[in-house]
Amino acid sequence: MRTTRRIALAGFGAALLLPLGVGSAFAADGDVNANLTPVALNGAAASGTAMVKVEGTTLTVTMAANGLLADAPHAAHIHFGAEARNECPAASDDADGDGMLTTTEGGPAYGGIVVSLTKTGDTSPASGLAVDRFDTAPGGEIAYQRGSITVEPDVAQAIVDGKSAVVIHGVDHNEDGVYSGDAMSDLDPTLPAEATDPAVCGVLMAAPSGGVAAGTGSTAGTGTSTGVMLLGGGLLAAGAGAGALAARRVRATV
Fold it and tell me: What pLDDT digit, counting tens, does each position of 223-233 carry?
């Protein structure tokens, strides 16, 4: 029998938030970029790009992705942890050996949520699963831009220093076109794991002179079509249309 559930807010950030330590009295300025590529083992045929402009403790984030599960909510965040490896997860992070990576299993690589990339309202870790304020990827694509995001000085510094990652969540392991399956989320046991497992990830790094950072390891190899949309200006027009869409529900098969 097919039922419909909304993603709940509770429980998302608590499982991953890692101590950031005492905030610095200063924050650096800079521009960083990430190539978003599929998270190991999770089989997302998706790619994307993200750019973050840091001015003191204020961020402007621009992001585009395609190949995601269409017309389904996709939580997206900037992750950082003082004790994390500051990279995207590898197959070796599959702690339970089930052949898939959960958000929690990715935590040692990319750390906890420091910014929720919601379209409106709060951007703190508390909005980690604010389903009505994340993009629903019409046609499998996300086009996002948001400014005036305020963070703590230590988070701003970590982003400028290349120690944070952008992660978009939501996969379709069984390829049935909806969030479903017997495996339940490690963040909220009432939800399918597909709804919260990480799909694509990229480490935010300073761009080399004359172009977007190419990325290394699991952040390399992003498709060029998404990068052109992001850097060529088409993102702004696409984002305006996406913002008018109503929030969608997560469908789970039980």
Answer: 333 343 344 33
Helices (H), the chain: 103-110, 153-160, 224-232, 234-242
Q: Which of 163, 123, 169 lies closest to 147, judged by CA?
A: 123
In this predicted model, what pLDDT tens digit does every residue of 165-210 receive, in sequence order?
A: 999 999 999 999 999 999 999 888 888 999 999 999 999 998 765 5
Strand partners, 165: 79, 203
Of the pLDDT bands very low, low, confident and very high (cuts 50, 70, 90), residue 20 is very low
Q: How many CB atoms lie within 10 A of CB 186?
A: 18
Q: Which DSSP helix (H) or strand (E) runs through 186?
A: none
pTM for the whole structure? 0.76
Residue in the block written with tokens 């017997």? 182
Which residues are registered as beta bridge partners of 17? none
């419909």: which residue's tokens?
Answer: 4
Domains and CATH numbers, the chain: 20-213+221-244 (2.60.40.200)
Residue closest to 198 by CA, chosen among 51, 87, 119: 87
Residue with tokens 């060529």: 232
Classify residue 139 by burial, with Cβ atoms within 10 Å: 0-12, 13-18, 19+: exposed
Category of 97 on φ-ψ map: left (φ > 0), alpha (ψ -120 to 50) or beta: left
